[in-house]
């Protein structure tokens, strides 16, 4: 399945001179207002990647944001060489269908790519095993098992703390060269789900506060 769309914390102006700018205080989803604590991770500027593994058929597939999205050849080459059948069988013995969600990053992937790392790679930010979305600590353990990085965890914060953090224009933790963080992803702590089963989460980018 495709990764659920992550809304910005605030709504945006749809018309006029401020079109596209955030409307601070006007939540894009009603659930965002009532949840106090959020688990925060760095948002990576890359290209969306889904890795599906079916333990029954032993089939591994690599997809982009949509089924029709094309992955950069150098990224697909990396994915196929790293996520081998042996690795997946070892990591997911006796498991249901698995989907790994992450970003292809580094190399020439997006403008930030060369700052993150020289070669194309994959960084994990979420995972679903069967019908279960994993908590952040489980994602970090899974990334270690798969010998890949996971999106850096920045701690548990309130919305006010997150906003102040993003406004401070922090440096990326992932980047090997000094580079401004693109933004953050916030997930409810503990995980809470929409009626359709998707985790409640939102994003904020540093550029959202550009005047």
UniProtKB/TrEMBL annotation:
Pfam families: RNA_ligase. Keywords: Ligase. GO terms for molecular function: ligase activity. Gene3D superfamilies: DNA ligase/mRNA capping enzyme. The keyword Ligase applies. SUPFAM superfamilies: DNA ligase/mRNA capping enzyme, catalytic domain (SSF56091). Residues 37-189 form the RNA ligase domain. This is RNA ligase.
